[in-house]
Amino acid sequence: MENNQFEEDRLIFVNQLESLLQQKKLQEALSMAEERLSRLPLDLDARAFIHLTLIEMGRIEESRDILQRLDKDFVKLSFVYLRAADAYREKGLNQDTVLCYQRFLSLNPLSEQSCEVADKIALLQKEESLADQGDEAGDADMPNPEFYTITLADLYVQQGHWKMAADILKEIIRRDPVNAQAKAKLDTVNTTLWLKSSPGETVSSTNNLIKTLSCWLENIGRLKKHAT
Predict the structure, then answer these.
(1) Cα–Cα distance between 17 and 102 in angstroms, integer?
(2) Please, what is the average pLDDT of the chain?
(3) Any idea what DSSP says for residue 1?
(4) How many angstroms separate the CA atoms of 17 and 197, rounded?
(5) What is the DSSP code (8-state) at residue 142?
(6) Torsion of the alpha carbons at 183, 187, 193 and 194, rounded to the nearest 10
(7) pTM, to two decimals
(8) Per-residue pLDDT tens over the stretch 185-197
């Protein structure tokens, strides 16, 4: 009952704020959003409308401060998932563990722990795969791919888990068929898998592959550098 009331209040607030913004009643919108945030310090709707209103008012630096605070909150939340994953792992609940690790990576992909977490996911999924009997059982026990991202695929590539990277990229493309970045990376991963399984690979093809992968991983490094 309380949840229903909260959702009703939320929808009323969102509709009111959208109406005020459309009418360019910016100060009134800002006051209403700030009042809600004072009552509900973790409310994302209030923060979002404060951010949008500040932009409309031309207070750009203040709007950027809102985003920076949100980024910090997401990082804090990511570590909640990381601790939850470790706790699930101690209990042997592998699927819950993988899901929490994936949520950690989706919220905080540039964390210093990201490569270690990707390794843990790969290990747990490998254990699940070995425990399954037959492909159908394996598919049924796969963790929810909701949090599959290109960043997660990149991390698997860095750790040498090519098949898992390919599975993630295929799922991303299934959800977003026009994702050119995922398609390009899947081509590279599939080429690597083919070369690794082919006894007749040539030196030139291997060198070209290494060059492509080096550029890819170099771009990942640049992203991490700019994010710090």
Answers:
(1) 34
(2) 78
(3) -
(4) 58
(5) S
(6) 140
(7) 0.50
(8) 888 888 777 776 6
